[in-house]
Each structure stands twice: as C-alpha cells, then as structure tokens.
Amino acid sequence: MSAEYDNDELVFLDEDTHQELEQSNKREWNILIVDDDEEIHTVTRLALSDLEVHDRTLNFLHAYSGKEAKIILDEYGSSIAIILLDVVMETDDAGLTVVRYLRETLNHHEPRIILRTGQPGFAPEEEVIKTYDINDYKTKTELTRAKLLTTVISSVRSYQQILTINQSRIGLQKIIHSASNLLEEHSIKGFCEGIVTQISSMVGLEAEGIVCARAGSVLDRDDDGVYVLGAAGDYATYINERIESLHNALIVEHVSRCLRLKKHIFEAGVSVLYLNSSGFEAAVYLNLHSEISELDKQLLEVFLSSISVGYENVYLFHELRNAAFRDWLTRLPNRNEFINILDHSKNYHTQEQLCAALIDINQFSDINDGLGQEAGNELLKAVAQRLNNCFGAEVKKSRIAADVFGLFGKAEEVTPALINQAFQQPFSAGDNTMPLNVTIGLCLLGRKPEAGVDILKRTNIALNRAKKIPTTNFEYFAPEIEEQTTWRLHMIRRLRNDFTARKLELWFQPQVDLSSEKVIGMEGLLRWPDGNGGFISPAEFVPLAEYSGLIVDIGYWVVEESCKRLQELANLGYPNLRVAVNVSIPQFRDPQFVKSIKRLITESGISPSLLELEITESVVMDEPQIVIDALTDLKQFGVTIAIDDFGTGFSSMSYLQKLPLDRLKVDRSFVAEIRPGETAFIAETIVTLGSKLGLTTIAEGIEKREQASFMIKLGCDEAQGYLFGRPMPFTSLVEFLAERRAD
Hints:
By secondary structure, the protein is α/β, with parallel strands linked by helices. This is EAL domain-containing protein.
C-alpha cells in the first residue's frame, strides 16, 4: 500500500491530483461495486487502488442499482471475485435481490459477497447470510480502510480456493464422464480436456493448456504429425488440428522436444508434461507464468502416473470404436457410422436442404477378377481419396459396402453433376490406370427429423432404380418409388404365404386342331385368387415371383400339377392330350431343373411327350447356352418344346436353329391384326418360317371365325382362344371335354 495512507479512515484524494493507474500485464481480480451513492464508488476504488493479491491487481466494475448489477453479473458471471453490495438502493431489499439472482438464478457460488449498508435498521437476518453464502456484513461507517483491505484480501483468497476446488471437481467430472462414455466420438476430446483442467487446478491456475499426441497414436491420420487432442482456454478452438496451427513456434518446439526426449520439461516460463502408457504418448503443455514448485511437481507425477492408465484405455476403446465404425481400408466411416451421421442430421438445425447419395462403381467385380484383389483395394483407396479431394469437409463421406460409397451434405454440394465430375478422370491403382463409371442414388431429406436407417434405405431404393434406367446414371428418391417397393414386398410376402397355403390354382385353356377343331391339348395357366372372388393378374404376380425367386418352386408345382391332371384325364379316357406350361429364366438357372422335371414326369407315370415346355424369346436371349443345353437334354427325354410370343422380342435366327423346338406360337398381337380383306404380314411370315423349319404352328388369341379361317389359309396347324374355349379350372375342363365328346 502507498505510504501516504497513515490513518485508519477512508481517504479521499483530490480528483485533480488523481492519476489513472497504468494497466498491468498481470491478470486482475474483478471487483463489482454496487451502490447508488457515487461517492462510495470513488472512495472504495481509491482505497483499494494499489492493492495486489497474489501478484494480481484489482479491476473495478460499477453498478448503481440492483438492475445494473444483474446486467453485469450476466456478462461476467463467476469471473467476479468479490461483490461489495449495498443493501438498500432503489428498494429496501435491492441488494438481497441481487444476491438471490446470483446464487439461485445464475447458480454462481464462487463470487464472494460483502454486504454494506448506511442504514443499520435494514440489516439482513442471520438466516439470509447463511443461505446465500454471504462473507461479511458491515455498516459503511464500520468499513475503515484497514478493515476493507482485510475483508477484500480474505475474500479474494476464499474465492480462489473455491474456484480451485470447483475447477478440480470439473476436471475430475470430465475425466470420469469421458471414461464412462469411451465409445462416444468425443471421448478423447473430453478426457484430454479433463486432464488439462485437473492439472491446472492442482497447481492453482486457470485452465489454459493443451494436450498433444502423435497422429498415429490416437487420431485417424496417416501422417506422423503432432495434433491437439484436448485443450482449454484460448487453445480450445484448435482441437484435432495440427499443433503448427497454433502459430506459436515456442509451443511447437517444446512439445516436440518433450515427445522426442520422452520426459517432462520444467524450465523458466515453460512446463511440458510427458504422458505415456504402453507406448501411447502425449505431451501436456501448460501455459504458466511462473515455475512449478517441487511439491506441485511431485503431485503432478502421481497424477500423471494414475491418469496414464485411463489414457491408454481411451486409446484402446477408440481403436475398438474404429473397428466398429470405420472402414479398415479407406479409413472412411463405414455403413454403421454413416447411419449415425444421417441420424444426427436431425440436430443440424439448418435451413439448408440436405441430401444423401450412394455411389456404386459399375463392374467393379470384373476389375477385382481381372487385376486381382490388391489392385481392387488400391482402386478403392484412390476413390476415397478422390472423394475427399473433390468434396469439402462439410460433406461427409463413407464406404457403405465393397464398391459403394456414401456422401451426405448440402443438396447444392451433393449433386449428380458434381459426383460425375469427380469420376471424369481415370484412377491410378498401382501400375494400372483405369476409368470408372458409376451409378448414383440420391435422397433429399425432408424438414422433419428422420431415422438414419430410413434415409439410407430410400437412397438405396433410388440407386437400384437408377440401375434400371438406360438413359441416365442417377435417380432421386421419390415417395412413389418407396410406395411401389413397399407394395412389391407386400405382394411377394402375400404370394409366398398363399403358395404355401396351396391357394394358387392351375387353370387350363383348350388348344385345338384348326382344321377339325378337335381338342388336342391345353395350356396350363396360373391363377392367384385375390380373396374377394377375383384374381390377381399374372402380369402383376409373375414378375414378382421371378424377382423373389419364388417362381422356381411355383414352376415345379405347376409341372407337378400338370402331370397329375394329365394322369387323371388319361383315366377319364383322354390319354393323348398334352399340357403346355411356361418356363422362366430363374428356373433354368436352378442346377436341379432338368433332373427335377424328369423326376416329376417319371413319378406321375405320363408320357414325357404330353408335357410341353414353353419359353419366350427373351428367356433364350438372357442365357442362351443354359437354355439350349437344358432343353436339348429334356427333348432327348421326350418332352416337347414350344417358343411362345415369337416375333415380339429380339429374335436371333442362329439361336432359333439351335433350339430343339417342336412348335412356334403366333402371338395374339399378330392375330389381332387380321382384318377382312387385309393381309397380316407378320403372322404369315411366322407360319411360313415354322413350315420351313418343320415346326408345328399354333395361333394364340383366336376370338373370331374370320381369324381362324385366315390362319387356316396361311397353313397354321393349331389354335387357342376364346373362340374355342376360355381358361377354366380343371373340373370345368372335364365338363367341357365331355360336352365336346358328346357333340
């Protein structure tokens, strides 16, 4: 204190002789003076102007009412060390209102409160002083300069002790919380922040420091740089950044030296602590202005020794999390993590339109098979690198499956054009350079929160849709697509249940010799009752059966049922009627197809020639050799073969010659072209072709007598259609045949 003060009374300095103190570089204690008397502010400030407590000066804040005091408390909070508070101001209890606001509303318990009043009659009750943790209560006349100094010094010490205790508690809470939530993304950050906070509180400092570690030890980085894992104070914004981003050469030098020497560094103005556990090392840089005492060094040694096990566990759990949520090859988030990223989109609170995209590399399996898996892996890493280079950090990247990558970000940044642009240039994989083509599915997010797994499902629906579009390589998800997909899955499930419950029916449409109109056979037609007296169209359910693979089992049932009915007809006196059934490509792909057809025919006891297998041109063109081999084998067994819908697809005469055919069917669309006095050129061509190839021809869809007459003139052998008989269940077929026999 200045030697000018030689009495114990508050001293007033002449304003003319008062000079403002120069601002010190040292930290300051914030002192809030709350009083409606300007003179009290001036006297208090002058009496304490030269005071230093623990090498720190005082910084005075002034409020002249309870309302102004609350505004300052909102701004400064617990950084205010002492409040010198008048009780009676705009109201008789204005000061106590400020106390309640600080302790109850703001929940700040660190600032020390000294109540002052010029009206002793308004003294607060003893219970108020206890409840609101008030340090002292004095009348203004009691507070001589010496007593004010003593009160302020003791209150500052009390504030510092409470702050240190709270800081230590917060540091421990951070460590404990992060240790109990190690699988969370921020566990390392929280743990390292806790280390900084705890160490700072142990040596009686504000939390102002950083924890650094080599990239390879904890962070997912390929380089060997040093990164900031956790930080507090001014350094908090640099977490997960390279230490060079601090732009502080001294910190870089000392941290690097600590990691290189693998020991603590305690020097003038520099304190760097070395943390190591089973090779997982870090350097804790402390922003100190004074040297750490020997006692504090020993305390820190014990603390670091204890905390190192926790640091090792954090690393191990981080590795475990990486195994669960990171793709091992590209180091991108995997499918699980991408779902989490999409799930968190509900928390983005952004007005921007968000978009998810899936990118499927076309024919990637050919690359793997042709160049080897190692080249394939290098190519995938090159794709990941390209995506990182072409899309900023705001766009999240992921490897969803073997050759499928995911993007998520603003819709303006995740577009088909930008994705295609990223794949314009070829990719290098070892000694190979190759172009890649991709298919893209995209899904724009709605404004309402959505589950990540649902977003991914919709994006995948769009991707599958894009693969079926020949004119473009991308597709955006639309609700009607999902509705169609949902309907398809529902129908497939229903079809499977009804097939298992034997609800499907096999109907028969008669086939006749055109000249005599005698019934020579039937076509077996599958019918699926809808449960309401009607039937679901085969145009709807047959593609569903093929899509789901259920057509294989249904196909065998149709053959089995046909053989069974043929045997029953033979018993009824119709031994030479045949049944034609359709066969699809999934059935041919079944390795047991030929063997199963032979077995069903043999078990039924019918002649193999009475079963006719019908195929379409599209089936032949899909898998020509598989179809030709299977039909050749069955033909040798005695089964007859017909080609259905001939002329409607992409015919190949070379395949047609290789097929072991017995019959050509003229499609109903060509029969419908027949008009009196006109020539049906295609129908005529097909009949002529069949005759040249030595095949029987049968016309479908004959509904009028003139159509039948025209086909007879062309030389067509057989026919089916409403003119001769509609499709009917087996019992009706038996009655139909009996009537025809009687006639």
